[in-house]
Amino acid sequence: FRISVIIKFCRRLLETDPRPAFEIPTYMAMTSSSRAAIAISMAVQNSSLSKLQSFNGIFAIYKKQGPTSADVLNTLKKALLKEAGVANPNPRKRNKQPLKIGHGGTLDSNASGVLVVGIGEGTKMLTTMLAGSKKYRAIGELGKATDSLDVTGNVIEEKSYDHITKEAFEEKLKQFTGEIMQVPPLYSALKKDGKRMSVLLKQGQEVEAKPARPVTVYSLSLQDFSPPYFTIDVECGGGFYVRSLVDDLAKALSSCAHIKELTRTKQGQFTLEEHALKEDRWTLTDITQALQPCPKPSGQHKNVKKAKSKHMPTPSESKGGDGDTND
């Protein structure tokens, strides 16, 4: 009886589901046992897709050094759709895929660490993640400045750093704690005339620096000082660029510097050690366990949200932060 019910279900599914791996005539020519096996398999796949589409919340994954944040997100989406039984998923065709997903703060290709992901209704929570606090660990190199302020750029200046002591370095850090003014890097996701500044620069166009803007540094500490290299930990608010911090810090010490490595160790409540899922754990089971569900809004909150929905910035429209140069 159960098998006959499943077969009837599959016949209906074949008429509507975009994922069948065989044609209906082929299916009808199969033996009852073969039909039953396929029916059970399709029922399991349909259950997985339904489970995936029921996800509403945020979680964190680990972004390794190399790919852009967009590439990492597409890899995640493709893996989830494949596990759910969607044949040949193309994660870049958003309108043709049964999954809504986004990230809450870009990390550039050279950076690694926590990347917060929103799924389903959780994508509406990402603007809050962009504005929230983040922690980074940066390894810098004194004596060389690059046009991108990190190791991927071209060296544009070299200066001595022999005069810089650990004590002088730590003392100078105090000037960059609290509410400070910061000029964003030229190589960033900030836009000019609707185009990202980093893209314009790569096209050979001239780009003027954006004016300094207020940013917040909650804590800043020196973890290692082995000239020319140094390691700092920084906790900051939204729109902050660690690359600019390293550049400004070195200038204040009468030298120059750039970032060699950058790792986001925390974003909001998500930490690198406890929450960031590595690629081998990008599965329905692991995400089910890691997912932080969306809070249920009150009726009043729904009305306010509806009234403001036309004015809320999307993550790509936000004021940005460190790392969003290439994505």
From TrEMBL:
Keyword Nucleus assigned: yes
Record has Secreted as a keyword: no
Superkingdom, taxonomy of origin: Eukaryota
Chain residue ranges for the region called Disordered: 291-327
Biased composition (Basic residues): 302-311
Major location category of this protein: cytoplasm
Enzyme category, top tier: isomerase
The Pseudouridine synthase II N-terminal domain, residue ranges: 96-242
Compartments where located: Cytoplasm, Cytosol; Nucleus
Family per similarity comment: Belongs to the pseudouridine synthase TruB family.
Function, in words: Pseudouridine synthase that catalyzes pseudouridylation of mRNAs and tRNAs. Mediates pseudouridylation of mRNAs with the consensus sequence 5'-GUUCNANNC-3', harboring a stem-loop structure. Constitutes the major pseudouridine synthase acting on mRNAs. Also catalyzes pseudouridylation of some tRNAs, including synthesis of pseudouridine(55) from uracil-55, in the psi GC loop of a subset of tRNAs. Promotes the processing of pri-let-7 microRNAs (pri-miRNAs) independently of its RNA pseudouridylate synthase activity.
Protein name: Pseudouridylate synthase TRUB1
Biological source species: Cyprinus carpio
